[in-house]
Amino acid sequence: MLHDARRLDILLARRRRKPTLKGAGRMRNAVFSCAVLCGLTGSASAAEQGLASYFQYSRFTGLVAAHRSLPMGSQVRVVNLDNGRSVVVTIVGRGPFIRGRAIDVSTEAAVALGFRQAGVAHVRIDQI
User: Fold this and answer.
1) Span 47-127: which CATH code?
2) Does the predicted model carry a pTM greater than 0.85?
């Protein structure tokens, strides 16, 4: 009988020493919520890099572009990393819909960036 009581005490002591993770889920949700509210998980970073292609958008003319997640109407500076040329474009649409592409710019912007003939270019996208 004494042996069973001692064994029960040891088991209860071990159980008390184990850390509980009951609040871990709530803490993780709180941290994630704060990160979203503070903009730490923004859709486009301050300087996104990738491939740019061009398109002809009949509804808009001039220096416009399409991006997957930047807000419509926002302006970004697109810098061609191959030749150093840059241009400021306005986001007017969604795209590109080809994997590996970061932004679609208008034909006018592609001419200004110097990649109209090549079709694609390595670019950096800076939010203004």
Assistant:
1) 2.40.40.10
2) no
